């Protein structure tokens, strides 16, 4: 490519999971010519952006710099809802449960104090009265309740963001695998498995677990993560979403349970186990083993037997997805090697969905050479 006149677009977005879909929306609504490329269909279960529901919270215990990003994401969720007329974020409240000086509840309290977040703290007895599905709580456990937290809808969010991007002029290619992104003249050439080459001034790389294949120098490993739903043994009211709102719960030994009660009109609870580097396998994203077996939920079921009794030992439904994580558990967002033609956003480390729409805005700012509205220096891809 010798000049912009030969380009197919101003920017090509590679990967239309939650982050890529949000970036495509932001770029298109700003008037840039954009092409989004997705190796599967939209809102698929092959990567990290699936599962029907995801926790939303602004009490981000993972890093203090993530709180403003979550707050901005909430504003953008409302904007996307308005643009598309689609309900995407349900503020049912969110709970962070465990010792008040622990990683989950303690981290949420630290984030709330530092950023002046609205939270309430329930002691163990109050939590048991309000949420009787939680059993086996330690004497000193507390629940940090964020009233503005709740559930986001991942598949619907992706479809809405891509739909809004299309409405603003973006083009979308699905079932199209990108094999390489190369410098070409004053821009980039994006090569597909079918032999097509897309030329643009810049490329945004948001392929989730496959980012390390396109940018080999990034220290990413891909983790296979089971997602499980359980059907209660009986029609117990305590398992309804209004009695069992979305939660993370630290238990003895350091494991963390997460999940929420049954959605309106549904009969299943979504319950899972945070990895923490102990339980899930590192895999090749091209061959991650999508099958599921009892080994995928045995540790979880052992915990649920006493922590959330009454849901049985085997899930009624299970999926196996993959996500990329970094050595420090933080994202990689920016220009690797200060490359003026490439922006990467990846390494979600299993806590990135709540930040999707804010990250899309940050990526669009970087493409346009603007200072991001939310500073994310701690996600610099060159920090390692």
What would your notes on this structure say?
The protein has helices spanning 18-29, 66-84, 105-115, 124-130, 154-167, 211-214, 298-307, 356-367; strands at 9-14, 34-37, 54-56, 89-90, 94-98, 120-123, 142-146, 150-152, 171-173, 178-184, 187-192, 197-205, 221-230, 246-250, 256-260, 269-273, 317-325, 332-334, 342-346. Helix 1 (18-29) packs parallel to helix 5, helix 1 (18-29) packs across helix 8 and helix 2 (66-84) packs across helix 5. 23% of the residues lie in helices and 26% in strands. The chain has 8 helices and 19 strands. The strands form 3 sheets. Strands 1, 2, 9, 10, 11, 12, 18 and 19 form an 8-stranded mixed β-sheet that branches. Strands 6-7-5-14-15-16-13-17 form an 8-stranded mixed β-sheet, with helices on both faces. It has a 3-stranded antiparallel β-sheet with strand order 3-8-4. Strand 10 (178-184) and strand 11 (187-192) form a beta hairpin. The chain has 384 residues and is an alpha+beta fold.
